[in-house]
Specification:
globular, 26% strand, binds magnesium ion, Rossmann fold, alpha/beta, binds adenosine-5'-triphosphate
Length: 210
Amino acid sequence: MEKFVQIENVKMSFETKRGEFVALRDVHLSIQQGEFVSIIGHSGCGKSTLLNLIAGLTLPTEGVLLCAGREIAGPGPDRAVVFQNHSLLPWLTCLGNVYLAVERVFGRTESRAQLKKRAEEALELVGLTHALHKHPHEISGGMKQRVGIARALSMQPKVLLLDEPFGALDALTRAHLQDELLRIIANLKATAVMVTHDVDEAVLLSDPLS
Ligand SMILES: Nc1ncnc2c1ncn2[C@@H]1O[C@H](COP(=O)(O)OP(=O)(O)OP(=O)(O)O)[C@@H](O)[C@H]1O
Ligand SMILES: [Mg+2]
């Protein structure tokens, strides 16, 4: 199989008041197309920093990241993120938040009705049909997390970047969404990189080392 995401010799440091803070260094990782990779590590070890780099939201201090053979120079609709802190736009409803992402990816080729249908279907998938018209401040943490998952899946990305996507969910909802996620990823033939603190979850969802 083809190497799809390649991380070569990446260093990420931040300028702080006390000088340079090195969050990541010497990171090398090759991920094949369709592979599911989990990242586990203690709080503050740089997991979200690595996902942000793959998302193209930040650029590395040193080294290079590639997706499908091209340097990652910024965010793109081929790489969707489920953020650890939800990152929903507070002035839009659940439907509006998902619609915005759908429009960005499919807006040039599809009608508004088709786009709305996509957004509604994604929210249905995560069990939020009853909350389409609620705003983020009107829903629970777990529901916000599910809107984030719906938003990412609705974009039909080649690469899904998931930062503790199921952290705030009860066991039953979590198991259901894990199954859905695996099904959707298989359909899309998407590549997934997931941060989790749950070893069982990582074992369940990830591909074994080959
Ligand atoms: N913009 C920034 N400026 C300065 N330091 C930062 C910045 N972003 C992250 N860091 C530091 O880099 C380190 C890694 O942060 P990161 O958010 O990647 O951790 P994490 O592994 O995702 O942790 P958690 O499991 O708690 O989410 C931390 O020490 C953090 O303080
Ligand atoms: Mg994090």
